[in-house]
Amino acid sequence: MARPPGHGAGYETKRQEIIDKAAALFAEKGYAATGIAEVGDAAGLARGALYYYIGSKEHLLVEIQDRVMRPMLAGVHRIAALDEDPVLRLRLLSQTLLENILARLDHVRVYEHDYRNLRGDNRTRLLSQRREFEGVVQQLLVAAMEDGSFRRLDPGLATLQFLNMHNHTYQWVKPGGEWDARSLSREYCATLFAGFAGPGRRFDDIEDHVSDFLAKRETAAPVPIPRSSGRA
Amino acid sequence: MARPPGHGAGYETKRQEIIDKAAALFAEKGYAATGIAEVGDAAGLARGALYYYIGSKEHLLVEIQDRVMRPMLAGVHRIAALDEDPVLRLRLLSQTLLENILARLDHVRVYEHDYRNLRGDNRTRLLSQRREFEGVVQQLLVAAMEDGSFRRLDPGLATLQFLNMHNHTYQWVKPGGEWDARSLSREYCATLFAGFAGPGRRFDDIEDHVSDFLAKRETAAPVPIPRSSGRA
Amino acid sequence: MARPPGHGAGYETKRQEIIDKAAALFAEKGYAATGIAEVGDAAGLARGALYYYIGSKEHLLVEIQDRVMRPMLAGVHRIAALDEDPVLRLRLLSQTLLENILARLDHVRVYEHDYRNLRGDNRTRLLSQRREFEGVVQQLLVAAMEDGSFRRLDPGLATLQFLNMHNHTYQWVKPGGEWDARSLSREYCATLFAGFAGPGRRFDDIEDHVSDFLAKRETAAPVPIPRSSGRA
Amino acid sequence: MARPPGHGAGYETKRQEIIDKAAALFAEKGYAATGIAEVGDAAGLARGALYYYIGSKEHLLVEIQDRVMRPMLAGVHRIAALDEDPVLRLRLLSQTLLENILARLDHVRVYEHDYRNLRGDNRTRLLSQRREFEGVVQQLLVAAMEDGSFRRLDPGLATLQFLNMHNHTYQWVKPGGEWDARSLSREYCATLFAGFAGPGRRFDDIEDHVSDFLAKRETAAPVPIPRSSGRA
DNA sequence: AATGAATGAGCCTTCATTCAT
DNA sequence: TATGAATGAAGGCTCATTCAT
Questions:
Q1: For the segment 11-70 of chain A, residues whose CB is within 7 A of strand E
Q2: Residue D33 CB-half CA count within 13 A
Q3: Which CATH topology does C11-55 take?
Q4: Which of A163, B212, C29, C219 is most buried by its number of CB atoms within 10 A?
């Protein structure tokens, strides 16, 4: 379980490579239906060597979940803390969410399908992270209701509608396909914000605000989405 | 392998019972992670007897998928064929969809998660049914755009937004919980229709139309949602 | 782990047969160095079928320990409770002990060598049984000291001397070889009792008392030592 | 495989240290159940470096057996060759035997339990050493019978009684515990010699003879029992 | 003198499935 | 109809050992 204390230069690189390969396989066939041997084959490693890196099959799953949840939570908290209009923050959060989904599509599929295979602490931690994530979204929605941007909705159900719309995307979107995160976010939010809008409210210039914000950000400090390989 | 040609009175009953139990287990732990022995235990049957009813583990999965897809498609086609406004038909379709999801929550979870374990024909047929289903939704959305109810949207993405919103519901809804199909449908459609609305269009009286329609239907011919046990 | 609730006529027989074979193999090569596959080969069973009977490798070890300890403790308690002179009871206990050792020589070897491979409850229970056993011997030795038969010895060390002498026998005795339980017991006790004797005490007629006692017993009720196969 | 021909200053020291650690681990968990990695951890050495010192796991076992048998045989032969009464020589041999057992308790446990894991020549040599050892004891016992000190006993069984009593000690004695070699030897021999005694023979002054002998020895030349680390 | 990385056989165990009864 | 018994492949994982550096 514990990795050997000293490991050479290439160790972590190789380790991340293995997790990549595993994520792809788990996404394709499901965690339970994928054998460790297949992961070894994909990584070009014999079974024994594999365990030198991974500890256990479940640990592999934990790392994949982490790769999804860690940057997602970080991004979401960063955006929620911005000094901007709640609706703009929701739009930015939507885009970050979709960027993360698109950047690690197979990881997300594993994250959504296979968390049932986690047990004990790992499972508990995952579920609490999900709740934390939902909490942030809900707070923004409530803020938007309170300032009149949105009509009075059941906060829980509004959150779930927002998340339904975004989180199911992984089921059909293709990497490098027709849709990128920004366009998707634009469309989703156009629907949701018009659907949630308070009386007399419209959000026609929201995309301009987004452009402004992103331009500001980019000149200040770029925030890259990490690629699938390499720790978040 | 094939079901024995002559079977007694209780055969089909017992068979359906077994599929029920299997669906519950597969939903909880995943298809691949659930053993045939567990199904046998849950059904109170030894392994040998189980195979007398089920043929194979994969066949069990096929039956569960069928139980989801068959009534879903039937309902959707029935509604699409109605001589009603496209927006009302979408609202009715939404409700049917949610009724089916809520009536067979565990089946739906299996349907969404485990179709990757199907192979060959079974898989092909399933995917084509999904496309068929999406086609119907898309046609209604296009019809609503054409009569000006909805603004001009990318038809594919509009469909996916509609389906995202509905199909992700199984991930959090609880049977016998806070939300029933009709309330959920009302809320989802309030958001989606306002979000999709063409210029100057509102759908404030849509729920009245729904009430009227349902009242008519009920006096004419009840269309029950079949319970989880028993063939569709 | 739990054996199936219903099993046929031959189940228990076959199970005992497997434990026999396992005991022989464990005795020869050691528990840890013996593979489950070897047990399967010896029992003429494929690996899968083996597990239908045994539950786990450790469970096999537990059963072997039980087969040693259960009749041993039963015999020892039965004899300690007799209304006879302490020295005679020690002599009878010695014989029972040796009878048990000789009757299940390979089991005893496993019992002495491999209990370290037990963990948790199984280990705890075993150790407490050992202490219980030693307690009975020590009480008899103390009784013999108190009535003057034996000189005043350190009770703990006297017990250990008695047990050293008997328990190491498994390391060299051969089943069906030169020595049977009664002769061995006679010789061991001749040495020990003369060695332990109080001033002026001799036990020249102890073997006559043994003969009398055994004759009495046999006419009353024979107490057979169970063979290696079959539960105690 | 063979030790490298040229090795530096600390090589042998480190090698002995590794064998020490291995003996402790083998004693605790058994040879077969102990991994080479654990030995490496205990010695603070990576697996590769370990093999630089040990050659193979079985070689480690051979060395441990040697550390037990070599000084044991040497001591026993030295004592048997003394020009003293056979009974005194047996008493001295008993003490040496127990000193060796106590000095290397874990080695002895390995020696008694795990010789079955040796194969080929290593095993043969070990067994012949054991027979050699028993032969010496038996000769002394026979000598004591022939001079009338002991009664006429079956020589083989007398030897085995002597060895049973001593060799089982490792199973319960604790290093630094209540009993040291000299006290144990005194008690064991008190029992055995009185038990073996010929008609009218007593050995009341044997401990005085022991004291005399040891005093003589010590002034002449100390014969230290080597500590667990360091070759015999 | 020591290391990290790799191997591949073997470990115990579980699995879906079959079949005589 | 239903069972208990059996199979053999595959499951995840550990092992002693090697070797380039």
A1: 11, 14, 45-49, 52-53
A2: 19
A3: Arc Repressor Mutant, subunit A (1.10.10)
A4: A163
